[in-house]
């Protein structure tokens, strides 16, 4: 996928949602990574908007956070 300013905006907003929900659940990045079955540095990269998560990873992260995947992508277009 070609990186555009719009793509970067969505990836950053998604990462911000992950961070917000993770912090609300009082989880560290490492705890979230363990629960989701991904590397701990990957969560940091997602939260900083450096990685564009695949749908599979979004589902893993949402499950680890105990929220529907739609909760992670909610409002990223409008924010």
TrEMBL record:
Please provide the record's keywords in A-Z order.
Answer: DNA-binding
Q: Locate the HTH cro/C1-type domain: which residues?
A: 18-72
Q: Which Pfam families match?
A: HTH_3 (PF01381)
Under SMART domains, the record lists:
HTH_XRE (SM00530)
UniProt KW Transcription regulation keyword = no
InterPro entries per UniProt: Cro/C1-type_HTH, Lambda_DNA-bd_dom_sf, TransReg_Diox_bact_type
Q: Which GO terms describe its cellular component?
A: cytosol
One GO MF annotation is: DNA-binding transcription factor activity
- Give the top-rank taxon of the lineage listed in the UniProt record for this protein: Bacteria
Q: What is this protein called?
A: HTH cro/C1-type domain-containing protein
């Amino acid at each position: 996928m070609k990186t555009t300013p719009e793509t970067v905006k969505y990836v950053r907003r998604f990462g911000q949602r992950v961070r917000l929900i993770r912090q609300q659940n009082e989880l560290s990045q490492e705890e979230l990574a363990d629960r989701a079955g991904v590397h701990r540095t990957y969560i940091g990269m997602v939260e900083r908007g450096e990685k564009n998560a695949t749908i599979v990873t979004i589902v893993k992260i949402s499950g680890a956070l105990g929220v529907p995947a739609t909760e992670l992508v909610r409002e990223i277009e409008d924010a």
